[in-house]
Design brief:
The chain has nine helices and 18 strands. The structure holds zinc ion (3 copies). One zinc ion binds next to loops. One zinc ion (ZN) binds next to loops.
Length: 368
């Protein structure tokens, strides 16, 4: 699989006129090599010429963690007294057009630009983004496994197995994260727990707020689950529970949200533009009078990174193709009172939209 990714990357480089691809920290490197660089002040850099052998430059002390794949890349450890920027510059040589990983530290890019003044630069995502956005069968299987693990935690929440009343949002957030790990994730990326009025802030930071009976609690959590090839794929799910029966206002709004989310999932067929999936959810919410309270895009792509192409947003006319994996997560937020969001990961497929999250979509009532 890695060999195929290398050849697809080189084909994209050739098409775009990119001579050398440089990857450091960030998701492109593990996606391509199975090796994830620690976010260190010491430089790790994969140098991929469009037609030549790839070299993975790593600090000597990191080398034992790298599994060399000689048919794909050789490992070049650098010592504490070496100048790794100069080594990269030498490997780049006279190449005129470089693409560099989007999340590379600026300090390394600035130093590279000083040593390679005649070079033009572009973002590596120009090369890798469209390739990464379309998942192969192994990647879809890995995303499905991660989503099902997240579903199991959501089911625990909905079954009332996670105590809520009297605990702080932060405590419940830690609990959700521990359960993601127990269900097979190797890393927790986030676990938003927002109670009552706090749920009106879509990216609320769980804090010392104590959860009370009668509230709707929004839980949006996800992590990364290791895949057999050394990479890892992300989960991301949002479910809301009501501690006790919800008010009529909340129940009515949730019915609109549920309808909008399911309609947008159903609309995510191959050939449909990403912006149309967004529009389907937005029309239903707007027609119910909640339009201004749905202030974010409907979704984002997901893979080795929790947010990546394709984005389900107005203005993105990209048509869905088989293998596009993305979230569908409309929300309705009433400042000062309550908020709600319903999120699944969906894969576009020839047979129709393939939702990876299957846990209950209703506003489940729990005792607390
Ligand atoms: Zn989410
Ligand atoms: Zn999401
Ligand atoms: Zn449903």
């Amino acid at each position: 699989m890695s060999a195929e990714r290398f050849s697809r990357v080189r084909a994209a480089m050739a098409e775009q006129g990119t001579d050398v691809l440089l990857l450091s920290v960030g998701p492109d490197l593990p996606w391509l090599t199975g090796y994830e660089a620690m976010p260190l002040e010491r430089l790790t850099m994969l140098v991929v010429p469009v037609d030549g052998d790839a070299t993975l430059l790593v600090p000597r002390l990191e080398a034992p963690r790298v599994v060399e794949k000689p048919d794909l890349f050789t490992v070049h450890p650098w010592d504490e007294t070496d100048d790794p920027i100069a080594i990269v510059a030498a490997l780049v040589g006279a190449a005129g057009s470089l693409a560099i990983g989007d999340k590379t530290w600026a300090r390394f890019l600035v130093d590279l630009q000083a040593q390679l003044p005649a070079t033009s630069w572009r973002k590596a995502s120009d090369v890798t983004g469209p390739i990464r956005a379309v998942k192969d069968a192994d990647e879809i299987a890995a995303l499905r496994a991660a989503s099902h693990a997240a579903d199991r935690v959501a089911a625990q929440l909905q079954a009332g197995e996670i105590p809520l009343v009297g605990r702080t949002e932060a405590e419940v957030s830690t609990d959700l994260g521990n359960r993601l790990i127990a269900e097979g994730h190797h890393r927790v990326n986030f676990a938003i727990v927002a109670a009552g009025e706090n749920a009106a802030s879509p990216h609320h930071e769980p804090g010392s707020r104590v959860i009370r009976s009668g509230e709707v609690v929004l839980c949006d959590f996800g992590g990364t689950m290791a895949a057999p090839d050394g990479t890892g794929y992300c989960s991301d799910i949002t479910r809301c529970v009501s501690i006790g029966e919800p008010s009529a206002e909340v129940a009515e709004a949730y019915a609109v949200l549920h309808e909008a989310q399911q309609a947008a999932v159903a609309a995510a067929t191959v050939g449909t533009a990403c912006e149309e999936v967004d529009a389907v959810a937005r029309r239903i919410i707007t027609d119910a009078g909640f339009g201004p309270r749905f202030m974010h895009r409907t979704g984002h792509g997901i893979g080795v990174e929790e947010h990546e192409d394709p984005y389900v947003v107005a203005g993105n006319g990209t048509p869905l193709v088989p293998g596009h994996a993305f979230s569908v997560e409309p929300g309705i937020y009433t400042a000062g009172s309550w908020g709600m969001r319903l999120e699944d990961i969906v894969v576009a497929a020839d047979a129709g939209p393939d939702p990876l999250n299957l846990s209950d979509h209703r506003l489940v009532v729990v005792d607390g």
